[in-house]
Design a protein that fits this description.
Elements (H helix, E strand, L loop, with lengths): L9 E3 L2 E3 L3 E3 L8 H13 L4 E8 L16 H11 L5 E7 L14 E2 L13 E2 L2 H20 L4 E5 L5 H6 L14 H4 L1 H14 L4 E7 L10 H11 L5 E5 L21 H8 L6 E3 L6 H9 L5 E3 L1 H6 L3 H6 L17 H7 L29 E5 L3 H12 L3 E5 L7 H6 L9 H13 L3 E3 L6 H7 L3 E4 L3 E2 L22 E2 L1 H4 L12 E5 L4 H12 L4 E5 L11 H4 L1 H8 L3 E4 L3 E5 L3 E5 L6 E5 L2 E5 L3 E2 L2 H6 L9 E3 L9 H13 L2
Parallel strand pairs: 3-4, 3-12, 4-5, 5-8, 6-7, 8-9, 9-10, 10-11, 11-12, 13-14, 13-16, 14-15, 16-27, 18-25, 19-20, 19-25, 20-21
Antiparallel strand pairs: 1-2, 17-26, 22-23, 23-24
Helix pairs in contact: 1-2, 3-6, 7-8, 13-15, 13-22
Length: 652
């Protein structure tokens, strides 16, 4: 059997988990049938154990699921009726956000001490003894509701910078009573909660705990501190789950592709090696081989692969069948999952169009099309590849033409940037899929009208992407080109990465960011790696401002850039480029500033490559239907490219 350690069962308190691949708690903001369908899809895919997202135990910080009330019990019973037949164990993570409580949820925040949360604001009320007692009772009552609802256990959240961790942390707890000071006092609230939960649910019900492996607050908890906490709580819990970070360094709570694979393991192993109860680890564990190694080596007993299972809920069963090549890979961008959730309130996934849409969208197309068609897909980037794969799965005869010598489109360019190689995993997988499915692939094929006539398609999908403008366009002055944009030391991002041109890098560099996306960040990374001093000038006020929820998607990159010879000037546009410097200003003011630069890279809005589409005709009376997907539509980004392509190809 492949992955013998991963597919070995494990006893966790009163539970027997069928395998070692689990899903620790993560936000979904789903309710009712959509919540059930989301978790049922992962249960059907073979996951051993899942934990429902952190849910508030008290009415002063309620969550979408009303855990603070007995009204939640019928939902749990319905959920378990659907989950139980699949064999996956299901727990509920119980918590209180404390100082991280959003103002829209509560008029008053509470915490161990009146120290604000750096991303939420507001000065919390220091909890009194009576408030602490009431909160202890709330945790116990929440655990009772989980048991009465038929859930398999509870996961006590003492991590991620929330209330219990706020008591544990010497950086957040400056009390002088019995709940503050030394470790024993700072642990008092946690221990009272654990004792109360056990008194409520008994010893025959699974109770686990999630602890921080490293807090990332100056003066906060270290792995050695947490190892001692884990040793003390171990007799009261059935497993110990570890997780890095706090709101002081938010991106470490869900590290993006900028961080190395297994980035939390050095801190984890300080703790897992001294804990006798089963342990769960997380942290950029993206492959089955990596997970197998961690369990086989004794570094952990179970491995959480949350984002990988958002990308492909069938990951476990595919691995069990030896079909790893069919697993749709997570790219670790955070754009679709936490980025989209935190910025729009909706969970999504860059690579899986069905994520959190299971009630209306299938993971793969269902059944063949009623009429088999010949489909021409023009462009082999993420949109074209997704369209070709989806159309082939529906039984169509698919012809894919790509103008360059390689598939991948702009994703292939982006993947050459420092710290961004993982983004190429999805186009590499899609390329393998279209080959497996028998798509006719033509590389170095510029599609002209004669090629269309030769293929004689019933439908044409145009995924020709976009190209950098070289006319000096900037959004701040849309009809006035930047003076000096034609100079020989002015380049595009494509030039920097050697696609269609080659930048000559010398002296200090200015990167002008007009879009607030990752493109300018990658350019700056490349220039810094080349040993240059870099100033990023942006129309936006912050680095990566227009990316989904920058604390999760940009935070790691920002730290990295700021650690080098890098400076950022926001809220400016370009006045003029000369041979030696760049003049910048603030729109509608007389402000003028000069930045020395012998290399200038302009990252502005690309020009959609629409010539073919316009020639073929987009009108309803055109000789054949023509569909635009990806950047050629004027959108920008891998998520809309894949989602648009899937929607179009599923409708053929």
């Amino acid at each position: 059997m492949p992955y013998p350690h991963l597919f070995e069962s494990i006893d966790v308190g009163p539970l027997t988990i069928p395998n070692r691949i689990v899903r620790t708690a993560h936000g979904t903001m789903l309710t009712g049938e959509r919540l059930i369908a989301y978790h049922e899809a992962r249960a059907a895919g073979g996951v051993g154990m899942s934990t429902l997202e952190a849910t508030g135990v008290h009415a002063n910080a309620p969550s979408v699921t009303p855990l603070h009330s007995d009204d939640v019990i019928p939902l749990y019973r319905e959920l378990m009726d659907r989950i139980r037949p699949h064999g996956m164990k299901l727990l509920q993570q119980i918590y209180h956000p404390g100082s991280a409580t959003r103002p829209k949820k509560a008029a008053t925040q509470v915490s161990s001490s009146p120290i604000p949360n750096p991303m939420v604001g507001g000065v919390p009320v220091e909890m009194t003894r009576s408030m602490i007692g009431e909160m202890v009772e709330a945790f116990a009552a929440a655990a009772r509701r989980c048991r009465e609802g038929g859930l398999d256990g509870v996961d006590l959240h003492a991590s991620s910078g929330y209330l219990i961790e706020q008591f544990l942390s010497p950086a957040n707890n400056v009390r002088t009573d019995e709940y503050g000071g030394g470790l024993e006092n700072r642990m008092r609230f946690l221990m009272e909660v654990l004792v109360a939960i056990r008194a409520e649910v008994g010893d025959d019900y699974c109770v686990g705990i999630r602890l921080p492996n490293e807090e990332y607050i100056p003066g906060g908890l270290t792995p050695a501190d947490v190892a001692e906490i884990a040793r003390i709580v171990e007799p009261y819990v059935d497993y110990v789950s570890l997780h890095m970070g706090s709101y002081w360094r938010f991106h470490k709570l869900l590290s993006p592709m900028d961080d190395p694979l297994g980035n939390e393991m050095p801190a984890n192993e300080v703790i897992t090696r001294v804990v006798g109860k089963p342990t769960i680890v997380v942290g950029r564990i993206m492959t089955l081989d990596h997970a197998e190694h961690l369990v086989a080596s004794g570094a952990a007993d179970m491995v959480s692969m949350v984002r990988a299972l958002i990308a492909d809920p069938h990951l476990v069963d595919k691995a069990r069948r030896g079909e790893e090549h069919l697993i749709r890979p997570c790219i670790g961008s955070n754009f679709g999952c936490v980025g989209n959730l935190m910025s729009t309130g909706t969970l999504s996934c860059v690579v899986n169009v069905a994520a959190a849409q299971e009630t209306t969208v299938s993971f793969d197309p269902v059944g063949p099309a009623s009429v088999r068609k010949r489909v021409l897909v023009v462009g082999g980037g993420p949109a074209g590849l997704e369209a070709a794969r989806t159309a082939a799965l529906r039984g169509h005869e698919v012809h894919l033409h790509e103008a360059t010598r390689h598939l991948g489109g702009q994703v292939a360019i982006a993947a050459t940037a420092p710290h961004r190689s993982d983004i190429g995993a999805i186009t590499e997988w899609l390329a393998g899929e279209v080959e497996r499915l028998g798509v006719t692939i033509r590389l170095s094929s510029m599609v002209e009208p004669d090629v269309v006539a030769e293929v004689t398609p019933d439908e044409v999908i145009v995924a020709t992407g976009s190209s950098p403008r070289r006319d000096g366009f900037q959004l701040s002055t849309p009809v006035t080109p930047v003076p000096g944009h034609h100079l020989p030391h002015v380049f595009s991002s494509w030039d920097v990465f050697g696609f269609g041109g080659r930048a000559r890098l010398e002296g200090a560099a200015v990167v002008f960011d007009d879009t607030g996306t990752f493109e300018a960040i990658s350019v700056a990374d490349a220039l810094l790696e080349a040993g240059m001093e870099v100033t990023m000038v942006s129309r936006c006020q912050a680095i990566g401002e227009h990316l989904p929820y920058p604390p999760a998607t940009v935070g790691a990159a920002r730290e990295r850039l700021m650690a080098g010879r890098f400076d950022f000037i926001g809220g400016h546009h370009l006045l003029e480029i000369t041979a030696e410097d760049v003049a910048i200003g603030v729109l509608f003011t007389d402000r003028r500033r000069v930045v020395p630069a012998r290399t200038v890279v302009l990252v502005s809005y690309n020009q959609p490559n629409r010539d073919l589409a316009e020639h073929l005709g987009l009108a309803s009376d055109a000789p054949r239907p023509v569909h635009l997907v990806g950047d050629v539509t004027g959108t920008n980004g891998i998520r809309p490219a894949i989602h648009q392509a899937a929607a179009v190809a599923r409708a053929l």
